[in-house]
Known about the structure:
The chain is about 40% helix and about 15% strand. By secondary structure, the protein is of the alpha/beta class. The protein has a single domain, classed as TIM Barrel (Alpha-Beta Barrel). The chain has a seven-stranded parallel β-sheet. A two-stranded antiparallel ribbon has the order 5-6.
Amino acid sequence: MNKGLEKVLIKADRVSVHGGHSGQFCQHASDKLEEIVQAYITQGFRWAGITEHIPPASDAMRYPDEKQAGLSADFLQERFAEYFRLGRELQQKYREQIELFLAFEIEHYPGSETHVEALIEQYQPDYLVGSLHHVGKTGIDYSHELFQQALQEAGSMTQLYCDYFDAQFDMLQKFKPSVVGHFDLIRIYDQDYLKTLKQDAVQERITRNLDFIAENRLILDFNLRGFDKAMEQYPSLSIIKQALQKNIALVPGDDSHGVSSVGRNYDQGLTVLSNLGATLDWQKPNLMQY
């Protein structure tokens, strides 16, 4: 048996701490939510977190594809309510086949805190995925053009990373999300990200944020979507090594945006973690108390 095949056969439960975006409730996803749940079951997932994006706090903070589709913030709020209604129904319908968690992926930008708090109170999710898709009010992962706008506003790549990790730290302190989504997403359009991550000011912030995650026993989303972009997974290897030294749990998140991406890159991700000596006995998210 060759080494490549041995890596594929690494034994571990299939789980996803961050996934389940569907075309029903997300403009940049595809397929129905129930079809995605069924795909998790077909692939033998032990448990999965369905973690749809929250609706925007205002029309101004809609994603570009939501604006292009003419979807108002009010409509997106109503659609999110249907997401939660259906998600709870699917939890019960498939409870004998898979343990489903119904969560959501929060945003963090100026003015979002009160909005997130209201959504938590209204829907009482099982847990939160704390993610950043903006620096200030500018999106950083939707397109190269928007990333360049954020870069210009920051003044330098190093400052953009610092602003990102400072905003992330603010989010961590305010919400203590059970799962920290794609920790270093800021590098998505930075071809020299390995160099930028090594900058002293950036490293100081990474260490500070990881220390907070460790102290509060939060989970780092081992996000497999990065492989789709001919990159590393999120977080980058250097950050994973730091996290493991701090005994931070890394748990796979397929960040699925349709049936075709359920479980995608899973074996590749297991190989990375196994080679680093990380535990494959996955920590479950801390469920919120109400």
